[in-house]
Amino acid sequence: MPGALDGVRVLDLSRVLAGPWSTQILADLGAEVIKVERPGAGDDTRSWGPPFVEREDGHRDAAYYFVANRNKRSVALDISQPEGQAAVRQLASTCHILVENFKVGGLAAYGLDYDSLKSVNPALVYCSVTGFGQSGPYAPRAGYDFLIQGMSGLMSITGQPDGSPGAEAIKVGVATVDLSAGLYATIGILAALRHAERTGEGQHVDISLLDCQVSLLANQSQNYLVTGQPPQRLGNAHPNVVPYQVFAVADGHLILAVGNDGQFRRFCQVADIAALADDPRYTSNAARVENRDTLIAALKPVMAKRPAAQWTAQLEAAGVPCGPINTLDQVFDDAHIQARKMRVEMPLGDGDSHIPLVANPLRLSRTPPSYRQAPPRLGEHTLAVLAEIERHPDHTLSKDNE
Q1: Sign of the dihedral through C-alpha 382, 383, 388, 390
Q2: Which of 5, 129, 157, 270 could make an S-S bridge to 207, C-beta 3.0–4.6 Å?
Q3: Is the pLDDT of residue 360 over 90?
Q4: What is the DSSP string of 272-298?
Q5: CATH 3.30.1540.10 is held by the domain 244-325
Q6: Neighbour-count burial for 113-141, b at 16+ CB within 10 Å, e otherwise
Q7: What's the CATH fold of domain 9-215+340-401?
Q8: What integer is the mean pLDDT of 206-221?
Q9: Active-site residue numbers?
Q10: In the structure, what pLDDT confidence band is assigned to residue 59 with cuts at 50, 70 and 90?
C-alpha cells in the first residue's frame, strides 16, 4: 500500500541529526528523499565512530549515521562548484520539500537559498534548521545540541540538587535538542505542505534549536513565568508532583510515579502505611509538594524493605504507576518492546548481511511507515539521479509525480 506521503519528493541538504531525523520521518511515511552530500566526506556522522558498520563491499559508516538515513538516496555533489549548484537547482525544481541546516546565509552564496529557489519552484516548502534561527542577535552562530542544552535552561534543571553528592548541571544522555528540532521541523513541513497543496504557495519554515528546546521546558518554564523563581535541580524528583521519583529498593532501584491523590492512597495501603494517606500534610498533591522532604524521608525506609519485582507486582495490581530503570539490552529484550516491533532488520546491500535499526514509532492503521532501503553508501545513487535530471532537464512538478 502506498505510504501517506507517497508522491512527495524531498531534497535533503541537511546533515548530522536534526535535519536528517526529520527527513527520515518523511521517508518512512513514503516520501522520496534525495540526500545531497559532500563528495569524499559525506554526512559528518558517517565518521562519528566507533562503533562502525562494515558493508560487504568494504565501505564502512559509523553506527551513528544509520540512526537517521534509511529510505533515502545519496547523491554526492560539490555545491561550491557551478555544476553542483545547477544540479541542486534542477532537483529543487522537481521537489515539494527542501530541508537544509547550513549557517544562516550560507546557501545564498550558491544561489540555493529560499528566495533564489522559490523563483524556480513557487510551491517549494523550504525548511531551514539552525541553532538560533534566521533572525536575532545569535543568528550567525553555529549551534550544537550540547550548547543548546545549556543555553536553553535544560541543564539548569537536570542533575542532582546543589549540596548533594555529584551535584552539577548535567546534559541529557541523548541529543534531545536535535531530535526535538527534527520533530518540530517535520510538523512545520507538513503544515506548510498542506498550505502549498491548497494554494500552490510554498513558504520558508524557520526552525531554531534554541526555540524548540525552550518550548519543551513546558511546565518548568511556565512555573518560572508564573512565579518569577527559576526552578532548581531536583535530581530524579518532580517539581510539581510528589512522590514521583526513584527510590532505592531491596535489590536495586524503582521509579514510583504517583500522579494523583487516589493513587497515593492506594500506594499507602500496599506499603502498609495507610495512616499516611490521612495525614493532613499529605492528603493532597499540593500538600505533598509543600511537605516533600518529610514525606520522602518517611518513604525511603519503607521502599527499601521489598525487592523491585514484589513492589512492581503489588503496585501494578493496585493501579499505582511504577517501573524499572532498564539498560538498553533489557529494553530490546522486553516482551512489550518486541511485541511492538521496535526493532527492524534491513538488508545491507545485495548480500545476506542485515543491519538492525530502531523502528519508527508511528502506528497508522492504513498508511504505516515502511522500511524500503537501508541507509545508503555515500554517493550510491549519484549517477542514477543525475541521469534523471539529464533526461528531464526542464522537468517541474506535475500531476504525474504528485
Answers
A1: positive
A2: 129
A3: yes
A4: T-GGGGGSTTTSSHHHHHHTHHHHHHH
A5: yes
A6: bbebbbeebebbbbbbbbbbbeeeeebeb
A7: Rossmann fold (3.40.50)
A8: 97
A9: 178
A10: confident
